Amino acid sequence: MKYLSLTYLFVIICSLSVLAQNKTQTIRGTIIDRVTRQPVVGASITVVGTTQGGISDVSGNFSIPNVSIGRRAVKCTSIGYETFSSEEFILNSVREVVLTIDLKESTGELQEVKITASQNTSRPVNDLAYVSARSFTTEETERIPASVNDPGRMAISYPGVKAGRDETENKIIVRGNSPFGILWRLEGIDIPNPNHFAQPGSGGGGITVFSAQLMSRSDFFTGGMPAEYGNALSGAFDIRFREGNQQKRQYRTKIGVLGLDFSTEGAIQKGRSSYLVNYRYSTLGLLSQMGIYLVGERVTNNFQDLSFNLAFHSKDGKKTTTIFGLGGLSKEHYMPVEDPEKRVLGKSDNWEDRIRPANMGAVGVTYNANLNAKSSLKLVIAAIGSSINRTADTLNRQNVPYRYETQKYEEARLATSAAYNYKFSSKTRLKAGAIINFVDFTFFKETAPRTNVSDINQFNVGRQTSVNGSGNTQTGQAYAQIVQNVAKGLTMNAGLHFMYLFLNKTSSLEPRFSIQYRSPNAHSVSFAYGLHSQFLPMSAYFYVRKDSVDGKVVTTKANANLQFPRSNHFILSYNYITPKLWKFSIEAYYQLLNRVPVEPKAGSTYWMLNYAESFPETPTVSQGKGKNKGIDMSIERFFSKKYYLLITGSIFDAKYQTFDGSIYNSAFNDRFSTALTFGREFTFKNGSVFQVGGRSIFNGGYRYTPIDEVESAKQKRYVALKGADYSAYAPNYFRIDGRVSYRSNRKNTASVFSLDMQNVTNHINYTSVQYNSVNNKLEPRKSGSGLVPILSYQLDF
Predict the structure, then answer these.
(1) Could you say which residues form the signal peptide (predicted)?
(2) Closest Cα to residue 253, out of 244, 243, 265?
(3) Which residue has the higher pLDDT, 345 or 97?
């Protein structure tokens, strides 16, 4: 009944639109050279499908007034540059669209190409990425069903990417790798996990801290990153913030079951500087009041975040300074069953009271300078902080608490980066840079091993400290890469990336190489090789162990000298774009992992990358290996003529090798993943637009290790069946998401009503297994959310 009421409400709201007649808006922006960042003067820009257009001035600026509202695209041409075609964007009656168009210099060798690379609207912003990369826009994070402006939730529509086990989280598994292997980068610096409800050592969480109002067109990588990207084993998000409007003040508010948003942007000095600010406060309690529990019936969640970007341009347009920032506060509270008599023996969550705050923030300054006609420089300095804490109490039948777990993971960084571009000619260019972090940290974890959850006295005497460390250190990265147009249609990119951790003096020198051939008829073939390493979570080096030496207890840091886990990526890619904007793509990849922490003990199956978060809490050595291989395929219709379509499929195999050479399936070897994503728009005579979309996900079930029933019965706890690690898997994962929205435009306002529905069919999926000590069985843990309707109203004014 509650879902029916939501549908009625949505229909009523949509019927309240006011007629729109011949409403127009302005498209403005700046055109620059992709390498030198110099303004491109005299470039011609036109609105696709119309005769309207403009010419860029001496500062590279352009303005096209009186453009009819709706979904629009632009094309830009200039002598000596490749043609640029934008993705379609939404132009409404209130907000101007401000574009930054970076043109790629032409080598003069592909004049006969019928479909240029610029017409691939999913092309990465970083044009040095030839394989396993694509860009995305905030409009894409909105229109893909159940993505709710979250890059992680959006990415599961892409080939080679699947969602983590828990539907309430945005962790992603890329090509059979742990979610730990994802890099997050903002404005040229690496940042800690930018998600609310983040977990230690994880790359995901509940929902992104990033505001959709600030994100510009950004990149997502699933492997084979160019030399400028380090500290990533599997993939990367490279997020960019947009500038506010320098001419007009604009406001946006959004109200929904996830939160309240308010953003404002406008000129600080008209034509020279701007501001853009967004604040969001969660309203997840509304879902609970509707009887919809994202995590569980006895779990409360709340969050808030703030993002901003201030931009200042010099008079000559050759220098830009920005001040950017984002911060997020979140907390989860897992509560026990209120009535002690209703608590079930053997189910620990019935007895536990757990609190999990997670906070992060970053404030930085960027300086972009066009040094001359051939070179540019970008400098960034930022202060970054993250704090993830955990406390857990268990209650007895008298509700007396006993603190059995305390965790603290706190880091503060001063991050600096520099990136230099130099263009030797239209065929050869250099990009080089460095990233240095100064890190202060405090880590602590203490637990009391349990023997029975029903009584606080059923714990082993005393607590065990497994992580303990504080201090400071530095990390350093440096890179250089050369791009060469070798021959007609043939481009090569070669470089090196270097990483160094001052804490234990470990380093990694990583070669990167890629080559691409683009034929005159829109086919392209690419190959890439790269060695990729990742810093372990700093807390991994502060695992402590107590040993008895000559009758004395000695505490040692057993993992202090661990090396970086590494992965060799080999990727072969083929793409074809038709004249009607269909893209066919297939990629084969092979990954060889080494230096993964494993326990140095015969028979041990511990391999760090089998975990979605955390870090080694046992003595380990960097001698583990792994092998991932697979094929990603996709058929995509870019958004045009009122619809889009994306069909993706992946088959893969992921194995790992332990200290004694034994080989097992990895925890994320789910065998296959598929997704079908589509959307269609219908425009009414009054100018309003109704949009409908869907997404179907069908993946292999998660892996788990069967139970040794005999040993488990003896020890009254789950004991894994030896030699059968991750040999069993749950039923296949299936989910359908849906979205409907209604856009309307008035003279002074524009609005969007939307309803996203995660798991439309309320299909029950299994997220994990849990041990029941009463019947000595592993029982499936079902997804707790089921159907999740996300209703929102957005107003521009």
Answers:
(1) 1-20
(2) 265
(3) 97
Which amino acid does the sequence have at 345? Answer: L
Question: Alpha helices, DSSP H only, in 66-225?
Answer: 138-143, 151-155
* Pairing outcome for strands 566-577 and 523-533: antiparallel
Q: Encode 695-718: b = buried (16+ Cβ within 10 Å), e = exposed.
A: bbbebbbbbbbebbeeebeeeeeb
Q: Average pLDDT in the 266-285 region?
A: 91
The SS3 of residue 142 is: helix
CA dist 676 and 384 (Å) reads 38
Q: Answer whether 224's CB lies under 8 Å from 591's CB.
A: no
What are the beta bridge partners of residue 305?
280, 328
CA 416 – CA 187 distance, rounded (Å): 11
Find all residues with CB under 8 Å of 593, minimum gap 6, and list them: 233, 565, 566, 567, 568, 609, 624, 625, 626, 627, 628, 656
Cβ-based neighbours of 549, under 8 Å, separated by 6 or more? none
pLDDT in tens, 613-643: 767 888 999 999 999 999 999 999 999 889 9
Mean per-residue pLDDT of the chain = 89
CB-based contact 177:287 (threshold 8 Å): no
pLDDT tens by residue, 757-788: 999 999 888 877 878 878 888 887 776 567 88
Q: Which amino acid, 532?
A: H
Residue 232: is its pLDDT beyond 50?
A: yes
Distance CA 131, CA 514 (A): 8
Backbone angles phi, psi at 741, to 5 degrees: -150, 160
Q: Where in 619-659 does DSSP place strands (E)?
A: 621-640, 643-657
Q: Say if strands 24-33 and 97-103 run parallel, antiparallel, or are unpaired.
A: parallel
Joined tokens for residue 36: 């030198």
Tokens of 176: 């059979």
How far apart, in whole angstroms, are the C-alpha atoms of residue 416 and residue 452?
49
Q: Which amino acid is at 154?
A: M
Confidence bin at 550 (pLDDT 50/70/90): low
Residue 92 to residue 26: CA distance in whole angstroms: 9
What single letter denotes the amino acid at residue 238? D
28 strand-pairing partners? 63, 98
Strand partners for 299: 334
Q: How far is CA 551 from CA 355, 499, 548, 554, in A?
A: 39, 41, 6, 9
Cα Rg of the chain, angstroms: 27
For residue 156, give the nearest of 582, 650, 517 by alpha carbon: 650
Calculate ∠ Cα 136-137-139, nearest 5°: 130
Band the pLDDT of 554: cuts 50, 70, 90. low
Q: Which amino acid is located at 22 in the chain?
A: N
Q: E strand or H helix at 713, and its extent?
A: helix 709-715
Count up the domains in the chain and report the number. 1
Check residue 784 and give its pLDDT.
58
The CATH number given to whatever domain includes residue 553 is 2.40.170.20
CA distances from 172 to 150, 158, 168, 183, 378 (A): 12, 11, 12, 12, 31
Let me know if 16 is exposed, middle or buried by CB neighbors in 10 A (0-12, 13-18, 19+): exposed
Residue 648 predicted with pLDDT over 60: yes
**Residue 228 predicted with pLDDT over 50:** yes
User: Starting from the edge strand earliest in sequence, which strands make up the sheet with 84-85, in order?
Assistant: 53-55, 44-47, 74-77, 84-85
In total, the chain counts a number of residues equal to: 797
- Tokens 């807390």 label which residue? 539
Beta bridge partners of residue 421, listed in sequence order: 376, 431
Q: Which residue has the tokens 């092979």?
A: 590
Q: Which domain holds residue 692?
A: 2-796
> Any residues with CB less than 8 A from the CB of 170 and at least 6 apart, and which?
150, 152, 153, 163, 164, 195, 204, 205, 206, 207, 208
Closest CA to 174 of 192, 155, 200, 201: 155
State the greatest distance between any 2 C-alpha atoms of the chain, in Å, as a whole number. Answer: 89
